[in-house]
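Protein modeling request. Please complete all fields; requests missing the sequence field cannot be processed.
Requester role: graduate student
Desired output: 3D structure, token encoding
Chains: 1
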Amino acid sequence: MTQLKELESQVRELVMLLEASKQLNSNLEMGEVLESILLQMVQVVGAEAGTLWVLDEERQTIKADAAYGPSSADILNIELKRDEGIVGKVIETGKAELIENVAWHPNWANRVDDSSGFITKSMITVPLAVKGKVLGALQLLNKKDIAFFSEQDIRLAVALANQSALALHNSQMYDELQRMLLSMIRTLAKVLDARDPYTAGHSERVAKYSLWIAEKLGMDAQSCEELYKAALLHDIGKIGIPDNILRKSERLTTDEYTTIKQHTVIGAGILSNIEPKEAMVHAIETALSHHERLDGTGYPHGLIGENIPLFARIVGVADAFDAMTTARSYSAGASFESGVEELQRCKGSLFDSRVVDAFAAILQGCNYQIEQYEAQQERGYRL
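Delivered output (383 residues):
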């Protein structure tokens, strides 16, 4: 009962996080925000090139997160020390700088030009600050058509930077909220798995397998992220299954099996109560349909073929593989090779052939060494 209350509390916290995320623009992808800010300012001021630097407080570095103009690809991801160069000085002081000849400036860090091959002559550097906190700086390089930037250019750049900094701040808040949300979902999945010692780590493994399959299938980054979250929550409905059934070591009776199958409907019901609903569509479908099978023999609705949502088909394969290859009260667990053979045997009838083939290719490609494949992936926030 204590575990159930703890899980319910986790769900309530998840609802609060999702409600908070609704207050932000769901399209605030950091890369798009930075590119938009930079392009707008370069065009308005009439610069040849520009670089947007973002401060990393934790690492005490400044990174070029967006660049426009000649050699921009070579400038991206260059890192400076927090106090390095003109950009470091502007971030430190919070004051804009207009420099007619950078070669004469004592704070000029020419290693950026050395790395990119770009030749900087004149420069405007303005801080990106919100409520007195400097988030980074924007540099506009080499005025087009005439030799130098003017005082009017710097006033315009400062005005645009003030508005742009707010967009950057909101984007950073959104990214942080998404990390918190993912952390909450992971915690919820771990607490859920802990109810049954035989399923410890099950949700995380299913989420990893599902993500690998999606990437192998060529799904875009946003879809991969949504799938990963949905997979973590696929068994959330087991909250409503009594411990005496969920943790039973003997074979389930017909009635008990009927009860445990209800976790799909219970899970979809729980997730359907979370607002905003549009953020949970894939998770709801996946929780409800991950035990559906192509030939209609699955549950709860006996869906056939492509009537089963793609996310559910992917998670269904990952879930079945983990169930086969993990020790349970009723099974010692098959080898990965045997698990893949069983998936291949059932593809086209129970499981989506494309999904099975993608997963088999991954496992066979790394010689069934999951640790090796994880090390190769390094997907950061997801894994």
